[in-house]
Amino acid sequence: MIATKQSASAIDKFMQMVEKHNPAQPEFYQAVYEVALAVIPFIEEHPEYKKANILERMIEPERILIFRVPWMDDAGNFRVNRGYRVQMNNAIGPYKGGLRFHPDVTLSVLKFLAFEQVFKNSLTTLPIGGGKGGSDFDPKGKSDNEVMRFCQSFMIELFRHIGKDTDIPAGDIGVGSREIGYLFGQFKRLKNEFNGVLTGKGYAYGGSLIRPEATGYGLLFFVDEMLKTKGETIKGKRVVISGSGNVAQYAIEKTLAFGGIPITASDSNGFIYDHQGIDTHKLAYLLDLKNNRRGRISEYAEAFGCPYFEGQKPWKIPCDVALPCAIQNELDEEDAKKLVANGCKLVAEGANMPSTPKAIEVLQKNRLLYAPGKASNAGGVAASGLEMSQNSIRMYWTREEVEGRLRVIMEMIHEQCIRYGKNADGSVDYVKGANIAGFVRVADAMLAEGHV
Ligand code: NDP
Q1: 132 flagged as catalytic
Q2: d(CA 190, CA 155)
């Protein structure tokens, strides 16, 4: 990917600067490094971006908010967590990106997510900038009332900094329809305004059809485009999927709809391997288990008599296609080698940055089709953009209308990856393509808007 010695040294210098100015933020460096590898050689050939220091400006968040979130548990104990919102870049539209509630949330994690979001949102072709937020609060094991009290307290601070034309949060890990409902209810109460300030809302109060499905569906639309470049489809292919949350659930559903065979699902405790395939009946069980009963994936193995691997990841299971849909850095170099050895042909990311840099190297060196999350999981934010449009015109579109638009957006993202990522031998470097295409749109807007 590195074009010249000159750009290699420019990348080194750039990364030294990033580390010096952002001490102890490993996830953020990782996200910036992936972009730098693709974009710095491109900038070397485009002096207008270099002169305006565009990349140096892009890695600096426009604003970071950090705040205390006090709340009371059911036993009457005083509890406290830390809340964040990183408003990364609004060159092409208001900040937009999810909220994550997970014990591992740190400023580094949210800066990586916000930075990725800028590129991803740009790729959707919609007018949305990038941001991300959340808290180290863990909703797991908390009662509905505890989650509600936490969400209300979180919003008491956040509401001053967001707005339908300023910053529009959505869900992410640990923030699903229940949390979005509580957050929206509190925003509305504090502002005395009913507007589309959050996306991922329930259909009854302004949500969009297909938004819950969009990241998983979008991932499969993208995979379909990738396979088309080889004259193939997913029909009959065995698909290994990690996670069992929002993204994984609908990735499984669309895999089935396209005739593929989903064979694994996981959570933070382990994974199940269903050799027969997860069919629609078993998927309905999984959705109820995870969304209503909030149970563990091991219960699936008990219910359907298939193997459960405690504390392990699913990448050792032979497959044609692998879709990491859980969390960052869940697929490392060793995992990538196992996938290659077992004949896997395609890896597309449903999660954000699930593959480590070394894993990506292995996948690319072995010429697998590999798509980074900022391209292949952009369907979620794209449908959020469509939810914003519907809120603005105060109308609801049909399922077919939203899914049709989502499909077109995923096709356009794929086209952009090809435009900037096609190699001389005809293969496609999706990492290069996605990063350069995402960069160009934001960079051009920043150039036009002046020194802001
Ligand atoms: P959910 O909270 O619905 O699901 C997360 C899944 O990941 C759960 O199965 C969870 O298991 C698992 N998980 C969490 N932590 C770990 C861990 N340390 N090791 C292994 N598994 C873990 O989140 P989403 O499905 O919404 O998000 C999944 C990924 O997709 C994230 O990277 C997110 O940023 C990304 N994404 C989400 C979008 C969306 O629209 N929701 C859009 C684009 C990207 P457990 O229940 O045990 O915690």
Answers
A1: yes
A2: 9
Contact assessment for residue 187 and residue 383, using Cβ atoms and an 8 Å cutoff: no
Atom of ligand 1 at shortest range from CA of 378: 43
Query: For the chain, what is the radius of gyration of the CA atoms?
Result: 21
Ligand 1 site-directed mutation target among 220, 252, 300, 327, most atoms within 8 Å of CB:
327
Integer Cα distance of 246 and 432 in angstroms: 28
Instruction: Look at residue 165 and tell me whether its pLDDT is greater than 90.
Output: yes
Supply the pTM of this predicted model.
Answer: 0.97
C-alpha–C-alpha distance, residues 224 and 247, integer Å: 17
* CA-proximal residue: ligand 1, atom 36 (nearest): 351
Q: How far is CA 40 from the centre of its chain?
A: 23
Neighbours of 415 (CB within 10 A): 12
For atom 46 of ligand 1, which residue has the closest CA? 267
Is residue 243 lining ligand 1, measured as CB closer than 6 Å? Answer: yes
Q: Is 366 exposed, middle or buried (0-12, 13-18, 19+ CB in 10 A)?
A: middle
Does the C-beta of 246 come closer than 6 Å to ligand 1? Answer: yes
50 CB-near residues (< 8 Å, 6+ apart): 43, 44
pLDDT digits (tens, 9 = 90+) for 100-125: 999 999 999 999 999 999 999 999 99
